[in-house]
């Protein structure tokens, strides 16, 4: 079963359980995936669906910081629930130690590359298992 089929099945379950919040979140996600599919004019792979989900999670996290600054606890709670639900469909995130190991491995294999250009190969290696801001922060702390 593909990831999009899993999401659609979860959407059906939410309808059966009359869980309006979950259903709303999953409908927004499936709509975003459908828009991406229309844009690409083909079925999406699981990796592409994960990219759509990651984009949704990033947007929600950006909104979450704004809600926290405005002290909107009602929206903060709702947004945290949405992020948790969507994150369940993403691959397991790398721990700091695993991320550091991946970065060191990429640095070793790309010895001739400039330090400022190492981010691209690292992001290809982690492929959705680490946020770009985490990778950037780790690169800065390692002074690479």
List key phrases describing it.
144 residues, 0% strand, Hypothetical Protein Yqey, Chain: A, domain1, single chain, globular, Aspartyl-tRNA amidotransferase, mainly alpha, Asn/Gln_tRNA_amidoTrase-B-like, 75% helix, 2 domains, YqeY/Aim41, carbon-nitrogen ligase activity, with glutamine as amido-N-donor, GatB_Yqey_C_2
Tally of domains: 2
CATH class of the largest domain: Mainly Alpha
Q: Which residues form runs of ≥5 with pLDDT under 50?
A: none
Element string (H = helix, E = strand):
HHHHHHH
Helix content range:
over 70%
Q: In terms of quaternary structure, what is this?
A: single chain
Main pleated-sheet profile: none
The total count of helices amounts to: 7
CATH architecture of the largest domain: Orthogonal Bundle
Global structural class? mainly alpha
Report the mean per-residue pLDDT as an integer: 89
Overall shape: it is: globular
What's the count of strands? 0
- β-strand amount: under 5%
Report on the structure:
By secondary structure, this protein is mainly α. It is globular, with a radius of gyration of 18 Å. α2 (20-40) packs across α3 (46-69), α3 (46-69) packs antiparallel against α4 (73-87) and α5 (96-109) packs across α6. It has 2 domains: 3-87, Orthogonal Bundle (Hypothetical Protein Yqey, Chain: A, domain1); 96-142. The longest helix is centred in the middle third of the chain and has 24 residues, at 46-69. It starts with a helix and ends with a helix. It contains 7 helices and no strands. It has helices at residues 3-17, 20-40, 46-69, 73-87, 96-109, 119-126, 132-142. One of its GO terms (molecular function) is carbon-nitrogen ligase activity, with glutamine as amido-N-donor. InterPro entries: Asn/Gln_tRNA_amidoTrase-B-like, GatB_Yqey_C_2, YqeY/Aim41, YqeY/Aim41_N. This is Aspartyl-tRNA amidotransferase.
